[in-house]
Amino acid sequence: MKIRQTLILSVVVLTGCSSAGNPGTTLWAGLTNYREEMRTLEAKPERWPERQRLAESIKTTYVVTVGASREFNRLVDLDLRRREFLIAQREGGLRAERAKEIQEELVQVNEQIDGLTRLTKGQLMNSQLNVQDTSKTIETVATIGLLELAIDAFSSQTNTSPTAAPSTKVGPYVVIDQGSFSSAVRTPEGQTFHCTTRMVSEEGASIRCQPVGGKS
To answer: What pTM does this model have?
Structure first.
């Protein structure tokens, strides 16, 4: 998703999600596109103003879908700072003293990000996006799991495997992010649901889950 589209997403949630859009899914879509667009922008160091605008955009999306969070804002600020440090390292030409300073600062930034990641996940679990267990739907479970994985992606401790899809547990359920806006939920009974997230023009994002096959 281009920056223009990501900014439009923030405008959409500012006006409130419609019946076709879901706040949690809209936030997850915003976080996913934030990471993807940042990877594109990092290829060109001179595009730092666009990286800053993208960071502000995801903060806005979080405020409207979940609520104000100093921790999340700080998390995004540090993520942006880390990216700029890594770009500087990649481009080279740094004085030895400055290169050492950046490396030391990266260690501190990563430590702070790891702590803020845990705090932000806790906020999400206590937010209105997480309903009571007795009324949880598969779509709600999928959304919470995907959001946890999206926040985990900020952490320097996240283990990424080129072959294994990221997964997490939401209570007794297992949520798997299969990429390309596709995910799966495995219930305690062994039933698997396939979930698809779709963007709704001017309305945000929604998720739909359907049972597949038999018990796994």
So the answer is: 0.85
DSSP string, the chain: --HHHHHHHHHHHHT---TT--HHHHHHHHHHHHHHHHHHHTT-GGGHHHHHHHHHHHHHHHHHHT---HHHHHHHHHHHHHHHHHHHHHH----HHHHHHHHHHHHHHHHHHHHHHHHHHHHHHTSTTS--GGG--HHHHHHHHHHHHHHHTTSTT----SSSPPEEEETTEEEEEEETTEEEEE-TTS-EEEEEEEEETTTEEEEEEEEESS--
Tens digits of pLDDT across the chain (216 residues): 444 455 445 545 444 444 456 889 999 999 999 999 999 999 999 999 999 999 999 999 999 999 999 999 999 999 999 999 999 999 988 899 999 999 999 999 999 999 999 999 998 888 766 644 445 689 999 999 999 999 999 998 776 666 789 999 999 999 999 988 999 999 999 999 999 999 876 678 889 999 987 554
